[in-house]
């Protein structure tokens, strides 16, 4: 592998590889409509995987505030777009995040930010759910965290089983959310 230090360098290497892929798929890469496609795809994929270059814990740590509030904080209906690591096809949907502070809260806009950072990597929905939960738990040390993700997967809809409208739901939680009553409160509030 040649050295891949700068982003531009990576873009042109990626573009070169996409040119090969498009050609192997049976297309004429010198056709007018495809001339700039390899570079565009390279840039799009770099954006869709830009979460690798960001540290979600750092994002939360920069916006920690001391606060006595000890009730549930919920950020629901966070739109996200990710790529399944098995087919590199999109899966997308909504994430719902709740936590119960234990002395510290974080800026509300930081929660969608960390959802974005973890989404912009090659993922499976299950791990995405757990990573968001762990990040909040480890950074804020709250009394509990719960994450619910509802998503649709292009790899199911466009190929194979072609279940057009199926939704996959995953959830994970810590601490106070081990109590069914606490989970119910959250589930009722995101309905
Ligand atoms: Zn897939």
TrEMBL record:
Q: Could you provide one GO biological process annotation from this protein's UniProt record? A: one-carbon metabolic process
Q: Which residues bind Zn(2+)?
A: 84, 87, 155
Q: Which Pfam families match?
A: GTP_cyclohydroI (PF01227)
Q: Which UniProt keywords apply?
A: GTP-binding, Hydrolase, Metal-binding, Nucleotide-binding, One-carbon metabolism, Zinc
Q: In which pathway does it act?
A: Cofactor biosynthesis; 7,8-dihydroneopterin triphosphate biosynthesis; 7,8-dihydroneopterin triphosphate from GTP: step 1/1
- Domain GTP cyclohydrolase I: start-end pairs: 16-190
The EC number of this protein is 3.5.4.16
Q: Does the record's keyword annotation contain Metal-binding?
A: yes
Query: Which GO cellular component term is one of those annotated?
Result: cytoplasm
Any one GO molecular function term: GTP binding
**What reaction(s) does this enzyme catalyze?**
GTP + H2O = 7,8-dihydroneopterin 3'-triphosphate + formate + H(+)
Q: Which domain of life is it from?
A: Bacteria
Which family, according to UniProt?
Belongs to the GTP cyclohydrolase I family.
Q: What is said about its interaction partners and assembly?
A: Homopolymer.
This one is known as GTP cyclohydrolase 1
Its gene is folE
């Amino acid at each position: 592998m040649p050295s891949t230090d700068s982003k531009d360098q990576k873009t042109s290497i990626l573009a070169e590889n996409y040119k090969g892929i498009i050609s192997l798929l049976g297309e004429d890469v010198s056709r007018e409509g495809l001339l700039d496609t390899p570079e565009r795809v390279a840039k799009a994929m770099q954006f869709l995987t830009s979460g690798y270059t960001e540290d979600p814990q750092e994002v939360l740590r920069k916006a920690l505030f001391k606060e006595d509030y000890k009730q549930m904080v919920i950020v629901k209906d966070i739109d996200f777009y990710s790529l399944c690591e098995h087919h590199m096809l999109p899966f997308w949907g909504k994430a719902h995040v709740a936590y119960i502070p234990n002395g510290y809260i974080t800026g509300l806009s930081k929660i969608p930010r960390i959802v974005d950072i973890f989404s912009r990597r090659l993922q499976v929905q299950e791990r995405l759910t757990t990573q968001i939960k762990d990040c909040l738990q480890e950074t804020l040390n709250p009394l509990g965290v719960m994450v619910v993700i509802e998503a649709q997967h292009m790899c199911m809809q466009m190929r194979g089983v072609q279940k057009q409208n199926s939704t996959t739901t995953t959830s994970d939680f810590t601490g106070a959310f081990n109590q069914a009553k606490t989970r119910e409160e959250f589930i009722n509030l995101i309905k």
